[in-house]
Design a protein that fits this description.
The protein has 134 residues and is mainly α. The chain contains 5 helices and no strands. The chain is rod-shaped and about 110 Å long. It comes from Dyella acidiphila. This is DUF2802 domain-containing protein.
Length: 134
């Protein structure tokens, strides 16, 4: 009889302890959720520093790859120039040179379409090939 009563009391105490712990965990979760975000938290600074290092390394890799990529880019540009001229008979050499000049000077798609007689796709291609990169 005493043993059964002791077990019953022990079960009740454990149940109460579980309920109290559960309530405390809910309060803690709400407190964490409602806490304002700090602007000086260390993890975000670490992430920003890591991203800056990655961007720097990518810049170095692009600089190394740039000399070897230029001949390939020139070959692609000449091939695209030839294919655009053959695909677009109304585009004369002077119009195409004007389109290249406008693209280098910062012209937009609409200008190329109006002044050079290009289709939208042709104007976008000329801009991609000849526009100055920042």
């Amino acid at each position: 009889m005493w043993l059964e009563a002791a077990v019953l009391v022990l079960v009740l105490v454990q149940t109460v302890a579980i309920v109290v712990l559960w309530q405390q965990s809910r309060r803690l979760q709400q407190a964490v959720a409602n806490r304002p975000v700090e602007s000086n938290n260390v993890p975000s600074l670490l992430i920003v520093n890591a991203l800056n290092k990655i961007e720097h390394r990518l810049g170095v890799l692009e600089e190394r790859a740039a000399p070897s990529a230029k001949p390939v880019q020139r070959a692609v540009e000449t091939q695209m120039t030839a294919s655009m001229r053959s695909a677009s008979p109304q585009l004369s050499g002077s119009n195409y040179e004007l389109a290249q000049h406008l693209a280098r000077e910062g012209g937009d798609v609409e200008q190329l379409m109006e002044r050079c007689g290009l289709s939208r796709n042709e104007a976008e291609l000329v801009l991609r090939l000849y526009a100055r990169r920042a």
